[in-house]
Structures are given as C-alpha cells and as structure tokens.
Amino acid sequence: MGTCVLKISLSDDMLEEIDKHKQLRQKQSIEEAVVDLIDYALKFPQYFTNFDWKKAEHEADHEISFGKTESFDMAEDFIADLKK
C-alpha cells in the first residue's frame, strides 16, 4: 500500500483536540492521532453522518425545559424503561 504526505494548517483549538485524542488513544505522535481520527471518520456509520444533530439537540432542550426528564438509580432500570 502506498502513502501520501499531506500538509495541512490547523487552528490551535483543533491541535489541542487532536492532542487530547493522542493522549486518550496512547498514540506516539500527532500524525498517528490524525490518521486514527481520519480512519474513524471514514468508518463512521452513514446514519450518523445524515442525522440532524442540531434539530435533535433543539428537541431535547425543549423536552428538558418542560421537565420531561427521568433519572435512574440503576442501569437495569434505565434499560427496562427503554423497553416499554
């Protein structure tokens, strides 16, 4: 398999996030972290790429503002509620 060298400019904020990923995934370099992130993005399920996250967050905020929330003491209770 061949390789290609890319030169990109990233903001300090973006580099900071990549560095966090590097540490989390125990990568040896920023380059390895970037390759890992690109690999992840290319394998991301199509469902999520077409999902309207802003709309979903707006709907969730609306529900929360009306107090339509529940809390659970145990994961089993949460799972049981999902199955209703």
Characterize the structure shown:
The chain folds into two domains: 8-51; 52-84, no CATH class. By secondary structure, the chain is mostly helical. Helix content is 62%, strand content 0%. It is elongated. It contains five helices and no strands.
In quaternary terms, these chains amount to single chain
Q: Identify the overall geometry.
A: elongated
Q: Specify the number of helices.
A: 5
Protein structure class: mainly alpha
Largest sheet, in brief, is: none
Total count of strands: 0
The portion of residues assigned to helices is 55-70%
Order of helices and strands: HHHHH
Low-pLDDT stretches are none
What is the CA–CA distance across the termini?
50 Å
Q: What's the structural domain tally?
A: 2
Beta-strand content estimate: under 5%
Q: Taking Cα atoms only, what radius of gyration do you get, to the nearest Å?
A: 19 Å
Mean pLDDT across the residues is 91
